[in-house]
Amino acid sequence: MELACTKKLLEYIEVKAEKVSEEIDPLFGWTANLIVVNRRKMLVVVHGATRCAFVLYGVTAKLLPKLPELILEGIRTLLRSEYVRPEIIEKYLDDLGREVSFRANSSRKAVAGCNKVCERVKMYPELFEAGDLYQRKVLPWLNEDFLPGRGYMKAHEAIIAQLQERYGEPVQTCRALELEVSLELYTPCKRRIIVPDDLSFFLFHYVLQRCFEWKNCHLHQFVTEVDKAGYTAQIIHPEWDEMDALENVQVLDSTKVTLREIFASRKQIVYEYDFGDRWMHTIELCRVIEDCPEPYPHCVMAVGDAPMEDCGGPDGFRQVMAVLKDKKHPQYQETLEWVRSTWWQPLDVKRINGWLRNIHRRMSVIWLG
Prior knowledge:
Layout: E1 2-5, H1 7-13, E2 30-37, E3 40-47, E4 53-57, H2 67-81, H3 86-96, E5 101-104, H4 108-123, H5 139-142, H6 155-167, E6 174-183, E7 190-196, H7 201-211, E8 220-226, E9 232-236, E10 250-252, H8 259-263, E11 268-273, E12 279-292, E13 298-303, H9 313-324, H10 332-341, H11 349-356, H12 359-362, H13 364-368
Parallel strand pairs: 1-2, 1-5, 9-10
Antiparallel strand pairs: 2-3, 3-4, 6-7, 6-12, 7-13, 8-9, 8-11, 11-12
């Protein structure tokens, strides 16, 4: 592997290097730069053809002798974060070359792309925490950026497309859960979704918000266990500090607990949203998918319109829908205008899946920040 380095990086690692070979395959072209974030040295390594990137955060002088193997592990970590199959990752590293040589960068385009990624990193220094060299949690957000001149293609989509072209399909896989989520209403309202089982409950909350087209205006909680007296024995809730004051309740941090951990021993949990209207969702595990080629949340079945926010719970939603069906009702016009103000829309699975595809990437900034 020939790693194209900026002059600043070459000076730091004290290497005098020749220029990168001109005939290098774009799939195997990587560029690295050295920047400082939070007073720590950070290596930003960017795939030139797609701007997919990873970082080494906190590169000290002691780590420099190990830099070649750290670079290769960084590429492996990046591809794992995109759920690339392990055998494809190793084949790519073989083709890339496991002997890393540091070269002077000869491509202005590669340098420009690397600088763009560095600028993005510098805008959010609060996302990076000491202790994780590869900053694994940041990778989905880092590679969510659009590529210039590629329409709506994003960095992570571009590198997957290139790997598929080189090695064949499918190149991605994940262990996933198929879950049926039922909202307690007077009419059936269900969503069957497939999600990676390593998804945190913090991000799973946003998946459910999109599935039922909620607006995240209220508090929520996941109830995983109830004792014989009816008290919640175990609960997952991300930000409600007052929960610590409740007795007989074990509080788990939803940013640290994954679906895999909870559904390993449970077949059903409850998701409650809006403690006033009390939207109660039963979440049932239907099956575990060991080899899922679509490593992102998606809805495979949906039944029934979800209620709009702040309509007064199940009874209030029933009343609103009854009024909308009767144009002669004295409150019809007023109710119609209010519903329009909520931006409520009937069920549309295609719209939901459009929101879901990259929801874990878009919300990771909130999670990390």
